[in-house]
Structure formats: structure tokens, C-alpha cells
Amino acid sequence: MRKLFFLPLMLLASLAFTTACSEDEPYADGQEQTTPPGGGDGGSSEGNDENVPDGNVDGTNGRYLVVYCSRTGNTQRMAQAIRSALDCDMTVVEPETPYEEDYDAMLDRAQAELAAIGQGNYPAITTAVESFAGYDIVFIGYPIWFGHMATPMQTFLHNHADLLAGKRIALFASSGSSGIGTSERDAASLVPDASFEESLLLTSGTLDDMGTRIPAWLEELGARRGENASVRITANGQVLTATMEDNGAARDFLSRLPIDVTLEDFNNITEKIFYPQPELSLDDTPRGCAPAPGDITIYEPWGNVAIFCKESGYSNSLIKIGHIDGNGIEALRVAGEIQATVERLE
Ligand SMILES: Cc1cc2nc3c(=O)[nH]c(=O)nc-3n(C[C@H](O)[C@H](O)[C@H](O)COP(=O)(O)O)c2cc1C
Question: Cβ(142) to ligand 1 under 6 A?
Fold first, then answer.
């Protein structure tokens, strides 16, 4: 579930201090390896999400968020490959003043912005994220500028330092040839209370290896696509199956299977309910649901599991953990207590 919103943000003055660029020589490579906007490079199919007109995407896997900035498309390509691999949310950080198209002008501007950041003045961006709650890992991607993290991403981290406290952050970057070390130090000083995972840097010489480098890196981090487990429910002599959500409460429920439960009526068979003991953990679980028949939910105030036999209105206190497949719910839409067994299907 996305918690992103976008709005013009004014340049914020700050007393915070981050490493100035003056310690780095101007980047004099003069050669730009660029990727066409939108990520298409004619190479690997990864990174060619056709639904990424503006770099902002809602994925189905709410465990990860990819945030990136990119002037010429290289970091964007990496971001799209990560997003595709995980099917997660992604948002692009844009500077309020568009990037310079002219390379030399961009070098001058970047130097000036890095110097300003050294004085606590962060260049304005137009991107903000309301909350990072529920994300296991936030991926932060940027190009290397004069050895440092590109300035729009420095502003983003500066603006979101409190919200990112305690989060797992995985940095990824693209460069002509420089390493990632100085930018890791930028990140650590901007978000001192985050926990940083192993970073990934691809240079102009290794960018085309991302088809293997990115999956290997995600594997190391333990980041993978959502897995929708299935369960078998035996009730009233009938066998139903259900598909579980990929969230913390569903995972906790799955960890308790097999389980025997007594389903009781609630509200004239609108719901069949039972009370797991202890209550299911709601960590990393998005709240809010408008239940449809067959939805398996938790009602947070009481801690009970409620299987909906009828439609009901949206409630912030309902948490969806699964759905009974097909018309299986018909077997439960009967008055009185039902003894049921729930087992995991491999
Ligand atoms: C302002 C600026 C400064 C740069 N500084 C460096 C640098 O210090 N080291 C380096 O290897 N590449 C440097 N580069 C090259 C970029 O890091 C590289 O082209 C990167 O892949 C661009 O990513 P993007 O396409 O996502 O913008 C610089 C590029 C620009 C525009």
C-alpha cells in the first residue's frame, strides 16, 4: 500500500551539516553514458517497465519501496530492475528546478549544490513520502556526483530522516567509475538512525551486468517477491482453499498451522469468527479493508479473525490476511458453530 504524496517543497534551510564536496576534485570525465528516459536500452527486459511513464509505480508487494533520482536514466534503469524483481512500490525524486541538459552546466550546478549542502542548504525537491511504515527495506538509488550522493537524494534523506529512523535502507548507485564509499557516508550522516544494508554500485563498465548483479544482490539482502501461500480449510465435511496475503499477520497465521478452530456466527452470519490465542502479530501489516464475501480478516480492536460471508463497509480496523477461493465461502454461510481445520498447502 502506497504512502506517497507529491508536492512542491520549498528549499529548506537547515543547520544540519553533511560532508562538503570541496574535498573532491570536479568530475572531469566529460563522457556520459546515458539510458533513454523510461529505461529502455534495447538490452535486458529488466528495467523496461512499460508502465513507468514518470517513475512512480504501485506494486503488489508492499514490503519494499524503491526511491531513486536519475538525470540520464542509468540509476532509473537499476531502480526499474529492482522494482520489477520485487514487484514493489517505486517513486522518483525530482529536483524542483529541472536538471540541466548541458553536461558542463550540470557539473557547475552540482558543485554549487554540494557546496550549499555543506552549508546546510538543501536544493528543493518535489517529492515527499508520508510514511515508510510497513516497508521491510527502503531502496535508495542515485547517481554519484563528484564522489557524493546526487543532491536531490541528499535532500530527500534530509527531509525524511525522522521517518526513516530505524528502517533498513539499501543504497544503490550508478557512476562513471567512482566508488560508492563517500556517498554511503553521506547517507549515514543524513539518516543516522537507519540501519544500512550492503550497497550496490554499478559503473559505466558494469551497468550492463545488472541482469545478474541485481538479482544476486537482492538474494543477499533476502529481498524477494511476495509469496502468496495457500491453505486448505476443512469445514462441515467440505474442503475449501484460501489464498493468503503477503503481510506480517498472514505470515504469523501461517506459522501456526495446522490449527483447529471453532467458527462462531457474528452479526447474523455476516461473519464467521474465532479468536486466535495469542492474538496475531500485526507488525508489517497494512490496515484498512472493505471486506468482500470470502475475505479472511482480523478485527484489530478485538483481535479476532473474521471470515466475511457477506459484503461489508470499509473499516480502518479490519486487516485482510487472505481470501477463500472461488465460491468456497458458501460452505461457511450456515447458522451455528462450525468446527474447522486449517492446514498449509505446499
Ligand atoms: C554532476 C555530475 C557529477 C558526476 N560525478 C561523477 C563522479 O564523481 N564519479 C563518477 O564516476 N561519475 C560521475 N558522474 C557520472 C554519473 O555518476 C554517471 O553517469 C551516472 O551513471 C549517471 O546516472 P543517471 O543516469 O542516473 O543520472 C557525474 C555526472 C554528473 C552529471
Answer: no
Pocket test for ligand 1, best of 175, 182, 204, 208 (most atoms within 8 A of CB): 175
Which residue lies with its CA nearest to atom 20 of ligand 1? 175
Report the topology of domain 230-345: Cyclophilin (2.40.100)
pLDDT digits (tens, 9 = 90+) for 84-133: 998 888 999 999 999 999 999 999 999 999 999 999 999 999 999 998 87
Q: Is residue 38 within 8 Å of residue 163, measured between CB atoms?
A: no
Three-state DSSP state, 48: coil
- Give residues with Cβ within 8 angstroms of 5, minimum separation 6: 128, 129, 130
Q: Which atom of ligand 1 is nearest to the CA of 77?
A: 26
The superfamily in CATH containing domain 4-221 is Flavodoxin domain (3.40.50.360)
Question: How many beta carbons lie within 10 A of that of residue 121, not counting itself?
Answer: 14
Sorted by where each begins, the domain ranges of the chain are: 4-221, 230-345
Of 104-118, 227-241, 258-272, the range with the lowest mean pLDDT is: 227-241
Q: Confidence class of residue 36 from pLDDT cuts 50, 70 and 90?
A: low
Say if ligand 1 is within 6 A of residue 151 CB: no
